[in-house]
Amino acid sequence: MSVDPFTAVESLRAALDAAGIVLPSLAVDPASPTLALVDLGRVRADVAMRLAEALQRGAA
User: With contact defined as beta carbons under 8 Å apart, do 46 and 14 qualify?
Assistant: First the structure.
């Protein structure tokens, strides 16, 4: 299944925003257009922890 990386980035950004999480470097990786990679970027440790907690809540 092929997913447009730009659509994936916007969908992820919206979901993260709803959880109060911002990944400032979230973007499509321009160096890999054929692989459709999404660059999540670097985040502070507190943001990584909030992201992990949000994922854990969603899995419960």
Answer: no
pLDDT at site 43: 92
pTM: 0.84
Residues 3, 21: Cα–Cα separation, whole Å: 23
By CB atoms closer than 10 A (0-12, 13-18, 19+), residue 50 is middle
The dihedral built from the CA positions of residue 59, 29, 10 and 24, taken in this order, carries a sign that is positive
Task: Provide the pLDDT confidence category of residue 32 given band limits of 50, 70 and 90.
Answer: confident
CA atoms within 13 A on the CB side of 10: 4
